[in-house]
Amino acid sequence: MVGHGSDVGSNLAALVRRAAERDPDHPALIAGGTVLRWGELDAAVDRAAAALRGLGLVPGDRVALQLGNTLDFPVLYFGTLRAGLVAVPANTGYTRPELSHLLADAAASALVTSSVASIEAAAELRAAVPTLAHVLVAAPSGPDGTRSLPALLAAAAAKLPDQPADGPADGPGRGGEDLAVLMYTSGTSGRPRGAMLSHRALLANLEQLAAIRPAVVTGADVLLLALPLFHVYGLNPGLGMLALTGATGVLVERFDPAETLALLARHRVTNLPAAPAMYAAWAELPDFADAFGTVRLALSGAAPLPAETLARFAAAGVPVYEGYGLSEAAPVLTSTLIGGATKPGSVGRPIPGVELELRDEDGQPVADEDDDPGEIAVRGANLFSGYWPDGTGGPDRDGWYGTGDVAYADDDGDLHLVDRRQELILVNGFNVYPAEVEAVLAGHPAVAEAAVIGVPDRRTGEGVRAYVVRVAGAELTADELLHWAGGALARFKLPGSVEFVPALPHSATGKVSKARLREASAPTAR
Q1: Phi and psi for 57 in degrees, rounded to 5?
Q2: How many whole angstroms from its chain centre is CA 119?
């Protein structure tokens, strides 16, 4: 433990109470012109917990939170946990079928949403999901069968004292190994699955991050919360670290490069957890370095940071530290902060409290002197409890979890991701790593972005298919691109087909959605 007063046996929502007790008047969250202080946030969390309990929900029930980066999200998230319920973050961009799958799979009892599409489809969602008893809309009113969240919270406020409740901040006996968050993964193969994150796992990852020196976040920091809070990266390293330390967070509902740069300067932001796509967008703006004048720590995760973007920030005197993690680890596992130096293509070393091994295809550790890639296996208190609902697929009996990610360690011990094992393409028995092919294709001056997937091939077992976005105005052909790539790739690695597309599908944090590309490439039934 590192002196923040947290306890891995407690409920995550207790962090808000402790921050309020330390300094109730310190700003907790800034949203536009609204400032919510820690004492006010703690009281709001009490009201949210009371409102949810007033619906008849009981400890362990699942509450889906389909909310953007507004004050509603942290209030409802911590309120859900304080009420002893399970939070199920949902992407605000989900279509009705995608949301229906999440709600039905989680057997959610309630949905809290700000999505216009979901509000309009409330009746259909309730008909499709038998367990869904309540749809709460983040608006003054909604269609029949829904309830207004502001009205519900106001009613709860009228029944509670002005001061925070004297009862336990840890909820009704829930914490430790109890399920706190059901985080649906991006579904790189098949439909998304719910990773079961306990209070223990989420708190452990916060303590692991807090053990890094110099400190990742302190109570004096101001964080820009531009990452979607429904994503595990924004949820725990962002919102969770905010609560652990009692820092101040600036909420950004919609990412706009110029507007967020203005926020950095206006609020004197010191700590910036962000995704590679954000850094790439900022780097295109003139004088972007000036806006980063108060930023003491710039962090990147969720996808690889292009070397060119890293170099542009380094040239401006702003080192960007990369990390690696996954939903199943709550989420952070490694960082270039460990070692203290940025390095192109590297995600650094394990953070304190995380054990990591590279293993060969027989499950044996790769020798230290061997720079061959191996699957990343990890062990630590931050690991999930398996996949919903029965806990399958979790850590083994010794606590180790095979991530499915392939990496190698350089001479300094820093990790370099190669690719996901399940995304390997076997061409005539030879391994093709999509990330390698994508990097070569993206290096062509006429290519804006490229993604590679494996497709069935009668001759070779699998073939390589590339989806390519041209630079605006470019007239690049497939033959020209393949001829150019042939100078860097062996023949078996070259794409057998190239499809030029106007854009690639991306997740909320900028990662290319390979699942959607596979769906688009799958043969249709006749």
Answers
A1: -70, 145
A2: 24
Q: Which residue from 235, 218, 392, 424 is spatially nearest to 325, judged by alpha carbons? A: 235
| Residues 498, 468 contacting (CB under 8 angstroms) | yes
Q: Which of 338, 358, 359, 334 lies closest to 347 in space, CA to CA? A: 334
Compute the distance between CA of residue 172 and CA of residue 102 in angstroms, rounded to an integer: 26
What are the strands of the beta sheet with 248-251, ordered from one edge? 34-37, 27-31, 248-251, 222-225, 271-274, 297-300, 320-325, 332-335, 349-350
Mean pLDDT taken over the chain = 91
Q: The whole model's pTM is what? A: 0.86
Domains of the chain: 424-521 (3.30.300.30)
Contacts of residue 143, defined as CB under 8 A and 6 or more positions apart, other chains included, come to 119, 120, 122, 123
Q: Are 409 and 401 in contact, with CB atoms under 8 Å apart?
A: no
- The CA distance from 5 to 460, in Å, is 58
Of 297 and 304, which is predicted with more confidence? 297
The token pair at 273 is 């957890």
Q: Taking Cα atoms as reference points, which of 168, 153, 187 lies closest to residue 14?
A: 168
Count CB neighbours of 390 within 10 A. Answer: 9
Does residue 112 surpass a pLDDT of 80? yes
CA distance 284 to 295: 18
Sheet with 179-184, side-by-side order of all strands: 147-148, 134-137, 110-113, 62-66, 86-89, 179-184, 194-198
The one-character DSSP state at 491 is G
Between strands 86-89 and 62-66, the pairing is parallel
Question: In the structure encoding, which two tokens stand for residue 128, read together?
Answer: 């499709």
Please report the sign of the dihedral spanned by the C-alpha atoms of residue 271, residue 273, residue 279, residue 285: negative
Instruction: Please give the pLDDT value at position 515.
Output: 81
Structure tokens that stand for 490 in this block: 């062996």
> Rounded CA gap, 298 and 320, in Å?
5
Q: CB atoms < 10 A from the CB of 201, how many?
A: 28
Task: Give the single-character DSSP code of 160.
Answer: S
CA distance 158 to 47: 9
Q: Which amino acid is at 464?
A: V
Structure tokens at 63: 């509450």
For residue 207, what are its two tokens?
């303590």
Residue 134 pLDDT exceeds 90: yes
Identify whether the C-beta of residue 433 lies closer than 8 Å to the C-beta of residue 462.
no
DSSP string for 190-258: SS--EEEEEHHHHHHHHHHHHTSSS-S--TT-EEEE-S-TTSHHIIIIIIIHHHHHT-EEEE-SS--HH
